Fold DUF711 family protein.
Amino acid sequence: MAQIRALALHIPFFNDDESVIDTITKIMDKISECLGICGMEPWTLRLILPTATDCRKLYRLLRDLFNVLNDDIMVGLGTEEHRECINNIVPLLTTYPKLYMSTRCNDDTCIKKVVDNVYLRRDIDIDYNVYTRFALVFGTWIETPYFPATCNFSNVLGLSISLRYVDLVEKALLDNNVLELFKFIEESNDKAMCLSKCSDIPFIGIDLSLSPWMNESVAGLIEKLIRDKIGHPGTVNAIYSLNKLINRIIDRLKLRSIGFNEVMLPVAEDSILNERIKNGDIRLRDLINYSLVCVAGLDMVAIPINTNIHSIAIDMLTIHKIKRRNVAMRVIPVNQDPTTSVNLKMFGTTYVAMI
């Protein structure tokens, strides 16, 4: 079902730390009022904070913020690997179930530090679900309503949206029903502009990335396009063609875009892709290779806990250098064998990928 996937509010660091919670609360109250006025019903509501520079202030901010926020609101932020915050990513994600975090790397030294401090922690008990809320970004910071590979690096107040619209893309490509697709995107964009005007918060843009949610399957769409299982010849071309379609829509409708604007293949969020992982039709190496061509990154993949995450990250960094575009990685190390099932909070059953 086509709908606005996420409404993200980009929150800057305010000069007066004492009033930041009050300011955010007032912004949220105004947004709640304007949602009804503009007829917008986003699937999720998100706050995007800037990169953390003072870790102690960050800890206080998160404590105070989650004390006042509605339980349904997600919060995303980034931290540089050289900050002391890197050591507390896992504890923070464990403490706050609605917190999403990312860090970025551009060299091997950074990757080793992140892998050691985030993925290879052995001094504390870790619920593998925390890794569904952490991303490693390669390149510059990304500002997008898609979590967790985002942060408000521009440090400005604004709002952005993303969409669930796989079914409409399928109708446009297979049934030639382009008008319904264009109408939905334009109406969503208009609602975002209305919200911006009503709340007096600038509209930063829309991330038109094509992303699945369970039976709204991007992998299923690819299979219909190539008339075969994803992974068979034609897969790369189908993904590339979908990316071209995204870019053409942005140009045709003169949209203000932000973020990735690419095909996304988060395994645990795509029922068909999940099934292909279960049966071994798609492996970790396939997903890495698709990132090389035209996928936004390696996303929501459960892997055996003894997998060399450092090597995966090095490959993703190399892909960033080849593509000259930002890519991201979200892997979930679990103590399970390949193709066995794993239950993820908020996502249900996924399967451990073969390497």
User: Anything to note?
Assistant: The radius of gyration is 20 Å.
